[in-house]
Amino acid sequence: MLEVKQVSKLYENDRGVHGIDFSMQRGEIVGFLGPNGAGKTTTMRMITGYLNPTHGQIIVDGHSMADNPKKARRKIGYLPETPPLYPEMTVQSYLRFIANLRDVPAREQKLAVSEAIAKLGLQGREKQIIRSLSKGYKQRVGLAQAILHKPDLLVLDEPTSGLDPKQIIEIRQLIHELGENHTVLLSTHILPEINAICNRVLIINQGRVVLDERPENLGRTMGETFEVSLEVKGPRERVLSELRSLPVVGEVKLLDAAPAEEQLQLHAASDTSAALAAEAPEIAEAEEESAEPTRANSATPASSASESVKLLVTSADRTDIREAVFFQLAKAGYPILEMKKESLSLEDIFLKLTTDEEGAETDA
């Protein structure tokens, strides 16, 4: 549906974008991420025909943006970061004006405008002057003009900016529905939004694509090891021994180890008892005899099966170890109270790919 072939836009001081290369299939919703100044807006403006690339080629549904710009633009709906609104017009008159610009047939304009108003929740505001709308409703009108002519490719720059939580959920649902029959390129700074609606992530930094991957494959792409956090019911040392005996397990770390001060207190108490036994055997024997009933009446020792331990288990070769861990502990009779796969979040990956290491060293 969209092909961006080695596209560059060069400005002074080597700014702009350099050799951007990716393609999108019909029905894909692609999240387009990058820090401020990375080249996102420049790339989207070239895709939509507002800017001409210095080098490279952009093809929309078989139409070259350079050779057939009018046909290519008809396939695109674009919502820039600042919606292109005429504040003195009413919502309805503005959308009819856009329908004329988009060459929507006259007999279909009324229905197209009504459908866009209904989808964006603008009922009851058709006669309202755009200037008097809240920022959230202006954003809705901007999105309505983008989908009015039912484009094959939808390019959205911060579509949920300024919306309240309920409106954000509604717009996300709309984008998800549009993705069933359209191709959507979505630029946003709200990273959870990418996880919620996108089936592919494209990250740009300093004018170059640094990641193009499906969300579920991000960890593997970043060379992430496979880790699970566990809470297991059973004696700590025995649970550790069982896990470390597995060939697929590379490392096991305790997550609930006793603080150093507590361990020192335990060692100090042990040393005091030993010294007392050496200096006054009769007193030590008397204390031990008086402690016998207490020990006999206690429910279970400290290392009994009622104790639980929290651990972080890392695989030896990045493979999924959850099944092996489950069967090993089940065989030993130690129930798993909780198991959770640990992975890099999209925020972690974004920061890792877009942080300027040289600048960070200079700041340090």
TrEMBL record:
PROSITE patterns assigned: ABC_TRANSPORTER_2 (PS50893)
Keywords: ATP-binding, Nucleotide-binding, Transport
One GO molecular-function entry: ATP hydrolysis activity
Region annotation (Disordered) ranges: 283-308
Claim: Cytoplasm is one of the keywords in the record: no
CDD domains registered for this protein in UniProt: ABC_DR_subfamily_A
Highest taxon, organism lineage: Bacteria
Domain ABC transporter: 2-231
Compositional bias per record (Polar residues), positions renumbered to this chain: 295-307
UniProt keyword Transport, yes or no: yes
Coiled coil regions in record: none
Family: Belongs to the ABC transporter superfamily.
PANTHER family: ABC TRANSPORTER, ATP-BINDING PROTEIN
Protein name, as recorded: ATP-binding cassette domain-containing protein
